[in-house]
Design a protein that fits this description.
The structure is a single chain. The protein folds into 2 domains: 194 residues, NAD(P)-binding Rossmann-like Domain (Rossmann fold); 92 residues, Alpha-Beta Complex (UDP-galactose 4-epimerase, domain 1), CATH 3.90.25.10. The chain is 43% helix and 17% strand. The strands form 4 sheets. Strands 3-2-1-4-5-6-11 form a 7-stranded parallel sheet, sandwiched between helices. Strands 7-10 form a two-stranded parallel sheet. It has a two-stranded parallel sheet with strand order 8-13. It comes from Streptoalloteichus hindustanus. Belongs to the NAD(P)-dependent epimerase/dehydratase family. It holds the Pfam family Epimerase.
């Protein structure tokens, strides 16, 4: 056990801060590799103080830095990426960090002969799904530089698997939410917008009929899935992590109204809305990772609202 060290890119971010404590519980040491642009320095400092976590304040775009920092690590978790919203505004940066960063991490992992690499892919690789639930073998149709880079990352892992026998699992995260999340994520901003209005006694305003849906998966369950992927017997495949339930924006508004405890009805803003729906087929996660979600959307959102109200 003593020699097991996880090299964790983007480990200081929202999801990483939920994964690292679970890794420590399992006896791993963790080397966080993060440019700290969005990282939580205070939380990382607390973890570093345990003696089992170190921080390398660097950027995945620098291949030499990645390669030397990974030396001596037995496992890799690669989460460092530019967000989906930002990738449309600045495709150059998105391709640079996501594509070049992916390649630097995978090439180094292959060189160092790590036991397993876990990669944060995304449900966005499917594009607008033709059917629900979305299965890993469905046609992929990524639409933005972010989504395209996530899919390309999966393909690159296949290359290093064939060439160097790299063992990997790509986790296709659905709509992750939970405590500690930055308010800028698209669907988190929907939650924040609704909650802020409700706290002021105002009804949430929904565009269209609120039919567009997401598969909201709690960050605690995502973290559990990440650790399971690090240790799963099967590898070299993509795995969905979601709840399998599509929660519409209208349903979300009702859950949040109940959680805040106000007596209002949502207002609908009649306009044309691109209705996209999301729900994961999680059969493979059950079979390959022995994983399933433990936190329902209602419980998770209610808990999140309580924490938001208390802060």
């Amino acid at each position: 056990m003593s020699s097991r060290t996880v090299f964790f890119t983007g480990g200081a971010g929202f999801i990483g801060m939920h994964v690292v404590p679970m890794l420590l519980e399992k006896g791993y040491k963790v080397r966080i590799f993060d440019n700290m642009f969005r990282g939580d320095r205070d939380k990382v400092a607390e973890l570093v103080a345990t003696g089992d976590v170190e921080l390398v304040d660097q950027d995945v775009r620098y291949g030499g830095a990645v390669h030397s920092a990974m030396k001596g690590c037995s496992h890799v978790i690669h989460f460092a990426a530019v967000s989906i919203n930002k990738s449309q505004a600045d495709p150059h940066e998105s391709i640079d960090i996501n594509m070049v960063g992916n390649h630097n991490v995978f090439a180094a992992a292959a060189d160092h002969g790590v036991e397993r690499l876990v990669y944060a892919s995304s449900a966005s690789v499917y594009g607008d799904p033709k059917k629900l639930p979305m299965h890993e073998d469905d046609v992929l149709d990524p639409l933005t530089p972010y989504c395209i880079s996530k899919r390309a990352g999966e393909d690159l892992l296949g290359f290093y698997q064939r060439r160097d026998n790299l063992s990997w699992v790509a986790l296709r995260f659905f709509n992750v939410y939970g405590p500690g999340q930055k308010t800028t994520a698209y669907y988190t901003s929907v939650i924040n917008h609704f909650v802020n209005r409700l706290r002021n006694g105002l009804p949430p305003v929904i565009d269209g009929k609120g039919e567009q849906s997401m598969d909201f998966i709690h960050v605690h369950d995502i973290a559990r899935g990440t650790v399971a992927a690090l240790e799963a017997e099967r590898s070299n495949l993509a795995v969905n992590l979601g709840t399998g339930i599509d929660t519409s924006v209208a349903d979300l508004a009702k859950i949040l109204i109940d959680a805040v405890g106000v007596d209002v009805e949502p207002q609908f803003n009649p306009r044309e809305v691109l209705v996209s729906r999301r729900a994961a087929d999680i059969t493979r996660a059950r079979e390959v990772l022995g994983w399933e979600p433990t936190i329902s959307v209602r419980d998770g959102m209610t808990d999140l609202v309580k924490q938001t109200m208390a802060s």
